[in-house]
Amino acid sequence: MMKPTRTKHSRSKRQVGGPGGIFPPTGFRIRREYRRISDRRRNAFHEAVRMLKMVKL
To answer: Which spans does this entry mark as compositional bias, Basic residues (predicted)?
Structure first.
């Protein structure tokens, strides 16, 4: 049996938010099908994707 080694990468669950964070009160997010979301939500999604593409790494 191999002995676990310490690496800088972790397989633990990484999430943003937590108590009082960006998660809804139930703790669950709702997954919506793209073709069934409203025009307003679809435009907001596309704007968010555009902003992510503009971030320089």
So the answer is: 1-14
